[in-house]
Amino acid sequence: MSYTFFDFLQLVGSLGIFIYGMKVFSDGLQKVAGGRLRSILKGMTTTRLKGIFTGFGATTITQSSTTTTVMVVSFVNAGLITFIESTGVIMGANIGTTVTAWMVSIFGFQMQITPVAVSLIGIFFPFMFFGREKFRNLAEAMIGFGILFIGLEFIKNAVPDIHENPEMFVFLDSFTGFGFASLLLFVLVGTILTLLTQSSSAATAITLVMLFQGWIDFPIAAAMILGENIGTTVTANIAALIGNVHAKRAARFHFFFNVFGVIWILAILTPFLHGIDSIMQFFMAEGTSVFDTDEVARANATLALSLFHTLFNVINVALLFAFVPRIVKFVEKIQTDKKDQDKQFRLKYISAGLMSSAELSIAQAHKEIELMGKLIEKMHFSFTGLFYKKQKKQEKFLEKIKKREQITDNIELEIGEYLTRISSFNLTDQATRRIRAMHSIINDLERVGDIYFQMSKTFQQMNEEGIELPDDAMKEIGEYLDVVHNAVKLVRYNLDKTNGDVDLDKAIEIENKINRMRDTLKDAHYKRLENKKYPTKAGVIFLDYLVRLEKIGDHLFNVNEALAGRKVKSAYSEVLGE
């Protein structure tokens, strides 16, 4: 046997080059796609059928079904989409992952791509130094594309030659003579290979190379592909281990969906593969069978394997689409909802999200911030209710405000840490600006939560000490709360506008109204003090409410400013004509 340990290291290194090229290619594509990725994600929250196209599109762009499914698990965990809505995306991701196999089989085995790959790097490398960001991102994607196929060529050359290493081939061939048991064995091999490489694309590429070099035949390669379909679900299941019950269910669905598919295809694998062979003989000029062992047949077999991969996943989705509700019920029985805390969507595990894609991660963080804005509005309703409800209701409102204030503290830390992790990537200028704005937004929203909690403590103190405000003062506080609520609603409206097209005129109008009303109510307060309509302590509490509510208005205006990407002073100067 002529294959040495040094040759094995070359194979591992070649695989590393391939995986690195895939990552660079994927990152570049995601940057080129930019905002379109966020548009694709919008499709997640509609119908299951649209979810399939969403999963296919996201996987085609990210070049990784694992990336898409881990993202889906984290989205379900954070409550951004439901478990049912996630099923369509997961099915679409299974189809999307077959694109890589086609790319590798066509460019890697049907044509001499290495000279083209090197030429691509030579053409696009100078673009890395261009001023325009779009050119740099395109250059990154194309350089990654080139590295990917250079790595594939290295893998093809590093795989042991069966003629020079017959002992290795005999050892491998000894496992192929057990009929159906051999197929099951190589399904397991494909699963393990995917776990080792942590990439179904890399595992598929290795399988295609082994088939092309004659180490395995077409049925064994198909069995390995089926195993890789199972192996790709493991990463998402690992990510879900620290998630809530909804995230675990999404990951389990992916696993069982793929396993059910592997079970039915194994039952008809032989006739199915012969059907693939007939299709290939019809379309290929040579007309050779993919079960033959000559070089032309092996090259055609790589295309046939990609066709098998695609047809299997498409048919699996078509067959099981109608049974998704039953699979969902099955998963729900296995993964039961044991704890009440699982019903409360939290952001504690946001780090399980899609860290390989900055654009998708930013979109996820933005949706989390939208939920934070919703929480702030709930705190506003609870505080307003303190002035109009009976004592038993007031105690519930006080408890809700306290609980939600603690949640906003945790959310700020969690999203802040998540944004910091995203910042470690090579980001576009636009992405960097968005992350800085998000840091500012979560800080201001957390401060708003603190202020509502502080005012609730002041209200509690009023009750304990028996301090009462006169009716006109209570009415004024209610009116002021209504004006502040307009600011809260505007923030929530602007948070929903993902394109960043925020009109600050409305925000400035509300902010000015808050400031004018504060001044008016201060005058009314001093008049009541002079006329001795309430004691000094009650007046201090009333004034404290005015100051704090005005501070809430300031923080909310800061949020609108960050969303618009414009400074407060410049916004005011435009309105004032300065």
Keywords:
mainly alpha; Methane Monooxygenase Hydroxylase, Chain G, domain 1; 2 domains; 23 helices; 79% helix; 0% strand
Overall body shape: elongated
Q: Mean pLDDT across all residues, rounded?
A: 80
Order of helices and strands: HHHHHHHHHHHHHHHHHHHHHHH
Radius of gyration over C-alpha positions, nearest whole angstrom: 30 Å
Overall domain count: 2
Structure description:
With 578 residues, this protein is mainly alpha-helical. The protein folds into 2 domains: 5-342, no CATH class; 357-576, Methane Monooxygenase Hydroxylase, Chain G, domain 1 (Up-down Bundle), CATH 1.20.58. 79% of the residues lie in helices and 0% in strands. It contains 23 helices and no strands. It has helices at 5-33, 35-42, 48-62, 65-78, 83-96, 98-109, 114-124, 133-158, 166-173, 180-197, 200-213, 218-240, 245-267, 269-283, 295-320, 324-334, 358-386, 391-423, 429-465, 471-496, 504-530, 536-564, 568-576. Helix 6 (98-109) runs antiparallel to helix 15 (295-320), helix 11 packs antiparallel against helix 15 (295-320) and helix 13 crosses helix 15. The longest helix has 37 residues, at 429-465. The N and C termini lie far apart (84 Å).
Précis, in short:
The chain is mostly helical. It has helices at residues 5-33, 35-42, 48-62, 65-78, 83-96, 98-109, 114-124, 133-158, 166-173, 180-197, 200-213, 218-240, 245-267, 269-283, 295-320, 324-334, 358-386, 391-423, 429-465, 471-496, 504-530, 536-564, 568-576.
